[in-house]
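Postdoc handover notes: sequence design on the structure in folder B. Input tokens:
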């Protein structure tokens, strides 16, 4: 069961088409797994269409966001759920890989491999990370926003356990040490605005050499 979702601001920007493309890839990939957020985005799209149709050009009220969120949370007519997708990888990632070719995994540590995705933007580094079963990622902080989406398997850190479809946002000052479950590798999508910063006594020596390569 998915327990971690994009917040309302991310979903509103995604629905409006104003969310940065790199982060939109993460939100779109989460929607592949999450029927709950699919419904929320559908409601936002409906609210946005209503606003464009009905609202004249008037000063924006301080209560506008509250009004939008109230409509977002309102019940919608029940309909038959969409058939579950047989496609394991989110469509947006499949589309990127179909253009760039097979993912090229790079060795980072004995427990961690990375494959950068070619997204045609320079604001965020978008990549797949594969943690071996029972493996861990070195403890690190963040120099900018990091979005992580679990695509397969699960991992845990100091704050909880994360399974397929879970969507996490980490900012500067939030230190963690991801650890994959022992029974299977964990594959995640990551979208970062800056290189991570290692915090361990020895690993921090690598900080000057950590790269940031949006493709």
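Designed sequence:
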């Amino acid at each position: 069961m998915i327990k971690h979702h994009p917040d309302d601001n991310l979903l509103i920007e995604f629905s409006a088409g104003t969310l940065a493309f790199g982060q939109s890839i993460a939100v779109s990939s989460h929607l592949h797994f999450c029927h709950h957020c699919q419904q929320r985005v559908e409601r936002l799209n409906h609210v946005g269409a209503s606003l464009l149709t009905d609202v004249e050009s008037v000063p924006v009220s301080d209560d506008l966001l509250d009004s939008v969120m109230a409509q977002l949370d309102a019940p919608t007519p029940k309909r038959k759920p969409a058939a579950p997708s047989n496609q394991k990888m989110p469509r947006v990632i499949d589309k990127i890989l179909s253009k760039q070719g097979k993912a090229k995994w790079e060795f980072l540590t004995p427990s961690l491999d990375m494959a950068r995705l070619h997204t045609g933007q320079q604001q965020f580094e978008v990549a797949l990370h594969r943690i071996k079963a029972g493996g861990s990622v070195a403890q690190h902080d963040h120099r900018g926003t990091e979005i992580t989406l679990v695509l397969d398997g699960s991992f845990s850190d100091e704050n909880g356990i994360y399974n397929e479809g879970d969507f996490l946002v980490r900012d500067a000052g939030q230190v963690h040490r991801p650890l994959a479950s022992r029974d299977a590798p964990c594959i995640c999508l990551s979208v970062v605005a800056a290189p991570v910063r290692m915090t361990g006594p020895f690993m921090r020596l690598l900080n000057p050499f950590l790269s940031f390569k949006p493709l």
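Context for whoever picks this up: Residues 79-86 have pLDDT under 50 and may be disordered. Don't rerun without checking with the PI first.
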